Amino acid sequence: MDIYLPIAEISVNALVIVGLGALVGFLSGMFGVGGGFLMTPFLIFYGIPPAVAVASSAPQITGASVSGALAHWQRGGVDVKMGLVLIAGGLIGATMGSGLFRLLQNLGQIDVTISLVYVIFLGTIGGMMLKESGTALLDKRSGRRRPAVPRRHNPLIAALPWRTRFYKSGLYISPLAPFFLGMAVGTLTVIMGIGGGFIMVPVMIYLLGMSAAVVVGTSLFQIVFVTAATTLLHAINSQTVDIVLAVLLLIGGVAGAQFGARAAQKLPGEQLRFALSIVVLLVAIRLLVGLTWRPDEIFTVYGP
């Protein structure tokens, strides 16, 4: 069933778009990530303009994050004070990112920039994940156990001024650290169409030293508000949000996440992280090929 996307100005198969949403939702449920960092590249591969793919992923991420945030809220797994600081930084970062997005769009460089940022970003993250998960698999096979990493915040973060207590997170640090973290993730949310949870969660644990009990819930709490603001900024400034595309992705994503969560229960964590790293690196390679490969015929003339 083909439908017309008014913003993208192309016709697509609705079942294919729902299927892409379901695939990313499945991966999200299986690996415990937001999925936006895979959704945007998959849409680009299908032929959706990168700017529209980025902007239309944001409402899908918002909708998919609400249920998770509510679940963590009900069990007390959200540090509201920390979340509000992250949101404040995220909103400023999203505003800055929106201005940069609009500037690159006016210069005609937004599509190349999005693809290039994804190549660098996914290549780096995928490589780190592959190394970590591969080492974990080898350790498990050989019976070695790595010592647990103590939970403590970075000395540079501890030196920042205006320290305050975040009771649920078990921290006594400056709010500047989570504020700037939120700002960075907010900027990436606008440019890349990601929720940022797969960046924020490890930073919150290993740099800020937050309690693991509230990390995921606080991250989701921040994602809901920042991605909602991102959607609004894209709709007003760049006008690249295709609501038809976003609804189709959301339908598929919600359904796929349920199956992914069930599948995750049957596989060990190390194997899941290793498989995700391979997927991430393959996506980065495919984007890199699209940026560097030159067809034999740049122009094609069709006869009458």
Automatic annotation (TrEMBL):
InterPro entries according to UniProt: TM_pro_TauE-like (IPR002781), TSUP/Inactive_protease-like (IPR051598)
Residue intervals passing through the bilayer: 12-38, 44-71, 83-104, 110-130, 171-199, 205-229, 241-260, 272-289
Membrane topology value: Multi-pass membrane protein
Predominant localisation class: membrane
Keyword Membrane: yes
Classification via Pfam families: TauE
Domain of life (superkingdom): Bacteria
Keyword list, A-Z: Cell membrane, Membrane, Transmembrane, Transmembrane helix
UniProt keyword Transmembrane present: yes
Family: Belongs to the 4-toluene sulfonate uptake permease (TSUP) (TC 2.A.102) family.
PANTHER family linked: MEMBRANE TRANSPORTER PROTEIN MJ0441-RELATED, MEMBRANE TRANSPORTER PROTEIN YTNM-RELATED
Protein name in the entry: Probable membrane transporter protein
Source organism: Sphingoaurantiacus capsulatus
